Amino acid sequence: MNQSPEIGDRINDKSAPPDEQAVRDWIGPKSFKHWIELQNWIEASYPGVFAPDWLYGGKKRGWSLRYKQTKAFCTLIPSYRLFSVLVVLGRAEQAKFDERRYSWRPQLVKLYDEARAYHDGKWLTIAISSADDRRELVELVSMKRPPVAGG
Q1: What is the 3-state secondary structure (H, E, C) of the chain?
Q2: Residue 1's pLDDT is what?
Q3: pTM of the model
């Protein structure tokens, strides 16, 4: 018996990565606008640097779209009626984050403080539901890797 999806459920049909329409239908039009804006910003700011790669993380984690060259840049996660981005901050990025601690929004600082530190850094999964969320994410990943182009 198939259950209706719940907010936060992942796309977990492993037969093929989702196309743009499937992502739009799953995360909803408002979230999809942020999805496209972020992809456009990455393409404009890092021309030719990343080849986005769909990863299947199993039934629980489903599909995600990773931007990586040698180190992971960020991973876009389409969830049911929700769009979030995974960013891993290594030791150097954590120091930069702490230097600017009081310029970040309180929600991000709380997320950062509560994130578990692994050997490769702090893994932050940031929900993107507004232009402010997207702008702050752009600042965060730009701190990780400065844009090549104007962006």
Answers
A1: CCCCCCCCCECCCCCCCCCHHHHHHHHCHHHHHHHHHHHHHHHHHCCCCCCCEEEECHHHHCEEEEEECCCEEEEEEEECCEEEEEEEECHHHHHHHHHCHHHCCHHHHHHHHHCCEECCEEEEEEECCCHHHHHHHHHHHHHHCCCCCCC
A2: 44
A3: 0.94
